[in-house]
Every structure is written in C-alpha cells, then in structure tokens.
Amino acid sequence: MLRESHSIVPPDPQLDAIERSGLAILGIGLVLFFLALFEQFTGLGSWVFFTMVSCIIAGGVIYGVRHHLKRPAGIQNNNIVKNTFTGVGSGGWLLGVVITGLYTAYYFYSGHLSGITRVFDPLSELLRNRAADIWFVYGACYTIAVVVMGIKAIAKYRHSKYQIIRTCSIMFCQFGFAFMVPSIMERLNQPYFLPNYFWPLEYKALMPDKVGDLLNSGKAMAGFVFGWGILMTLIATPVLTYYFGKRWYCSWVCGCGGLANTAGDSFRHLSNKSRSAWQVERIMIYSVLVFVVVMTAMVWLDAWWGTLGGASLTVRKVYGFLIGAVFSGVIGVGFYPLLGSRVWCRFGCPMAAVLGIIQKFKSRFRITTNGAQCISCGNCSKYCEMGIDVRWYAQRGQDIVRSACVGCGMCSTVCPRGVLNLENGPTDQREEYQFDLIASIKARQLEAPKASHSND
C-alpha cells in the first residue's frame, strides 16, 4: 500500500531488510556493552569481547553503508531538522544525557567500570601484553566509533573526493597514531607516545614531572618522544598552518575533530551562528589559551625556584578538572546532540586557538567565493560546524579567512552552485582583496544616502 505525503521533502524510505539486519546486530553488541558495564561477564573469557566488538562494528557498518548507498550520490540531509535525534527533540535530549552520563562515569567514577574494563583484557593482552585499564578501554571505544562512523561518512559523501580522503586520514590517524602506536610502545616497554597530540592540547606533555620522568627513564625512545613534542609544537605547527591553514590538524589529524566529523556529523547543523555566539567563542577560546600558558609557566617556575609555594599545583588541578575533563570530554562530546559537534573545538581548544591566530594573520589558506553564483540558499552556513555565517561572505564575494574555520570543506560540499572553494595562495593577495572589498562596501554605504538625497 502506498503511503501519501504532502511534505515538500519526501519522508525517509522504510528500512529495508539489510538495514534492519544491521540494526539488529548493532543492538546485540550494545546490549552486551551495557551488560558488561554492570559486570555481568566477569570471568567468561574472550568470546564476550569479540562478540560484542564484532556486532558493534559489523552492525554499524552494515546499517550505515546501506542507509546511504540505497540513495543517489549527493547531499542527503532530508528531515535532519525534524528528526527527534538530530533536531534537538526528545531523542536528542535523551542521547545527550546518556553520552554525558557515560563520560561523567568515565572521568570521575572509573573505579566502578571494572566490568567493561575486564572485558577488554583480551585485546589489551594481545596489543600491550598487560591487562586493560580504563584509558585503554576509552581509546578502543573511541577508535571503534571513529572507524565505524567514518565508513558511514565515506558512503554518505562518496561524491566528494575531498571528503573521502579527509575521512580516511582521520580514521588512519585515530587507529594508527592514537591507538596502535601507544599500544605498541607500551608492549615494547617504551614511553607512552601519542604522535598526534602535543602542547598546548596535550598540556601534560610539557609538565616538569612528565618531562623529568621521560628523560630520566633511560628508555631508548625517550629522547625521540620529547623531541617530537617540541618539534610539532614549535616548528611543525606554524609551518604547516602557514601552508595549509588549521585544517591540516583540526580536520585531518586530531582525534577530537575526527570524532566530530564522523560520529558527530549528523549534529553539525546545530552550531549557533549568531553574532553573540561568535563573541562568546572569541572570549572563551583565547581565555583557555591564556589559562594553559599561564598554568604551564607557573608550574615550571615552581619547579625551578619554588617561588609560588606550590600554588601552581592547584592551578594545574583546576585546569585538568575544568578544561581537561569537564569541558573537553563531558561537555565537548556529551553535548553533541544539543549544541553541535564542535563545542570543544570552537569554544575551548587551546590548540585550535593557536592555529586560528596563525591562520587569521599569516596563512595561505582561504575559502574563495564566487558571489555572482550565490543563490543565498543558506546550506553553507547551516552545515558549518564552527558556527560561521558562510553565506554572509558568499553573498559579498569575499574570501573567508576566519580563525575558527577548520577547513572541513563541508560548506563547499553542500553548495549546489559551486560558489565556495578551499584554496591556498599568496597571503598578500588574500589580505589585499579583503581590504579592498571592505573598503568598497563602506564606500557604497556612504554613497547610498547621497544618491537618495539627490533623487529627492
């Protein structure tokens, strides 16, 4: 029987047998996961882990890929605002509470999660030759989410070569650099090493106690690990940002951005585009940057001369609690269904702040616009995860050079007219073009009253 619909946008087609099978398999995996949280599988062996992970990965991939492949290639965001999960409906609020609750338990009540930790022992023994801990469990779950949802994103954006390559880079960096490399280093009894995280995002990397323990450990890779962090912070970051903008890190390498662009892709349209949100963004993100710089300086001053009487330890604990746990984790991920997928990246990440300053004032990266082709549909602004009103720039034919832009390219991907392009070019041309355009707009505004007065 045919179902009639009077909606301009047709309703989503019914789930087919493949999608239902994928959801059923995924559901079994999630049931096993939540049962493991309550220590229902203690001592039952590795079959629980492999069954749980296999069901989650297989079910998620089957459903996600089929859901998009049965539709024509191209942007398919129909009903995304009306959907209860992606439109801040009851489902979105419920999902937000669940994710926030899980992150709260992970950060502050990890001692009560021994059940799920023991389930991951087989994988930890295989990779690290030791029992699992809560950090290993988190890294494994995080990686599974990025990989599964990354495959789904590739199917969704299969018409865009840029999005396919970028998503593959995210998946590779998370699986290889953020999960496998640390595990292998631990198995070889070498220092814990996350190649894609460094100061100021990984603020602990430059703490005196961490540096001292690393250099005094006597391990073969200690010097390399320390040198890598210094190299990436002082040399690679400004050089790569000059040539490619902050997208080289925020949209291609970073795990925070990786989760946002895969698992959080369905919530990107929820970012606030208002001017007041922009003002709050600038205040908050640079405040966090100042916070981490001052905190790092205080800790080193205390370590060298003890002039602060241990006050730096308190400041470090406050930063670790408010920024390292609550903001970046609990709020940054838990609020995906409520505030969008880049809450942490937009309002709090100190690494994004540093990259944004370089991108704004000294970078070859920009998003060029062809204002004559813009039809003001608003797709670019709607799906900007960083809350940039892209349409405002496109209507004026102005290059987009915003410190917040992470270069995900979604504004260009969803544009039906090909108005927007991600490009690299000489910095002087970018700045000169912006200056001339702004000057011309101001000149027109001044001429408008004169013209109307002469007509009178």
Provide a short characterization of the protein structure.
The protein is mostly helical.
Write down how many β-strands occur, each being a DSSP E stretch of 2 or more residues. 2
Determine the mean pLDDT.
88
Q: Give the strand line-up of the largest sheet.
A: 1-2
The end-to-end distance, rounded to whole angstroms, is 66 Å
Main sheet? 2 strands, antiparallel
SS content category: mainly alpha
> Which word captures the global form?
globular
**Low-confidence spans:** 431-437, 451-456
| Cα-atom radius of gyration | 24 Å
Proportion in helices: 55-70%
Give the ordered list of helices and strands. Answer: HHHHHHHHHHHHHHHHEHHHEH
β-strand percent reads: under 5%
Give the count of helical stretches. 20
InterPro entries: 4Fe4S_Fe-S-bd, 4Fe4S_Fe_S_CS, Electron_Trans/Redox
GO molecular function: 4 iron, 4 sulfur cluster binding; metal ion binding
Protein name: 4Fe-4S binding protein
Keywords: 4Fe-4S, Electron transport, Iron, Iron-sulfur, Membrane, Metal-binding, Transmembrane, Transmembrane helix, Transport
Please tell me about this protein's structure:
This protein is mainly α and 456 residues long. 64% of the residues lie in helices and 2% in strands. A two-stranded antiparallel ribbon has the order 1-2. Helix 1 packs antiparallel against helix 2, helix 3 runs antiparallel to helix 13 (311-334) and helix 7 packs across helix 11 (255-262). The termini are far apart. The chain crosses the membrane at residues 21-38, 44-65, 85-109, 134-155, 167-185, 220-244, 283-306, 318-339. One of its GO terms (molecular function) is metal ion binding.
